[in-house]
Amino acid sequence: MPPTCMLTRRQLGVATAVATAVATVAGCDRDRPSQPAGGRTDRVTYLTGFGVSGRESHAWVAQAKGFFAEAGLEVAIEPGAAGDSNHQILAAGKAQFAGVDASGAFIRYGRGADTSFQIVAAVQQTTLLSIVTLDGNRINSPRDLEGRRIGVGTGAAPKTLFPAYAKLAGVDAAKVTWIDSTPQQLTPLLVAGQVDAIGLFVVGTPAVEKAARRKTVVLPYSTYISDLYGTVLVTPKALVEHDPDLVRRFTGALLRGLAYAIEHPDEAGQILHRAAPTQDPAVAAQEMTLMRPYALPARGASVGVLDPSRVARCIAVLQSLALIPPGLTGEQLVRFDLLGAAPKVTA
Q: CB under 8 Å, gap of 24 or more: what pairs does 314-318 form?
């Protein structure tokens, strides 16, 4: 059975050092976005992938560092919920951009439940989905989840994708009980012992450990499903068709914020804290540090890039698990040409 992830301060320090040596991002200030015609300012709303946290700090970084303003944008950043909620808000025209889990987006589009959106960038190149529990809960492998209660955001991807994860990990999915909740209540439920584990991104563990004053045990979905992207940026198909320049400007500015936050996690934590004072800047910095190896593509590639062959493999994986029917192609779901001023990884 593949090992679980136990995050300690020492391991976090080692991961940080290794990640820093692996890749650096070209200076964001060198890639200036195009300005809208007539010098106008476009007002848009962006929904984070999942609440307010360190892993979402890049949006506030893009705002604080002036990347949105340079692109002729005035952006209202709203805390998003699970994929179902974000997709519904987007489809209703109450937001123009949102972060959602890639697998959930592929499944919705492939099943025909919602084909009103397009994926335009990958915030994470590898899925962050995981099951998180506390050390001492006697959950050390996927099979230990049988007979347990897992808290999850209503409509969130950890639950949607769990049957596939369970099949590959040798777990009887029918023996797991799911407790739906809001993003804000997941950690309190786990700490209070009202659930045995929660569906969460891998990088969310520093906040859980701070609240619980215990170490976490993490069961990453990527151990068994390695080809899936993590959070992706989506926008209405109608907006792509009628104003692709706006989409490019927003996407490029957001990805500049992501690159800057990865290179400056401590500053990103402080920026998030100023925007949302309840957020611990040190925890936020840890989350962004942990996200680095998940978010950066290979050397020479643009931050946020989506590779057509990789997208095809993701579709094939989901089809092989009977999560989507045959027929979906990457060209239907993804626009590969709207990264705008996204910086490149240089080392």
A: 314/102, 314/103, 314/106, 314/227, 314/228, 314/229, 315/106, 315/110, 317/225, 317/227, 317/228, 318/103, 318/106, 318/107, 318/110, 318/164
Span 191-245, pLDDT tens digits: 999 999 999 989 889 999 999 999 999 999 999 988 899 999 999 999 999 999 9
Which one, of 66, 22, 13, lies nearest residue 41 by Cα? 66
Given 187, 206, 223, the domain boundary residue is 223
Instruction: For residues 91 and 36, give the distance between their C-alpha atoms in angstroms, rounded to a whole number.
Output: 25
Do 280 and 138 share a structural domain?
no
Establish how many alpha carbons lie within 13 A of residue 71's alpha carbon, considering only the half-sphere containing its beta carbon: 32
pTM given for the model = 0.82
Candidates 235, 74, 71, 50; CA nearest to 130 is: 50
Positions in the chain whose pLDDT score sits under 50:
1-22, 28-31
The answer to whether 171 and 143 are in contact (CB under 8 A) is yes
Tally the domains of the chain.
Answer: 2
Give the range of the structural domain holding residue 194, as residue numbers without chain letter.
129-223
**What is d(CA 170, CA 165) in angstroms, rounded to the nearest whole number?**
8
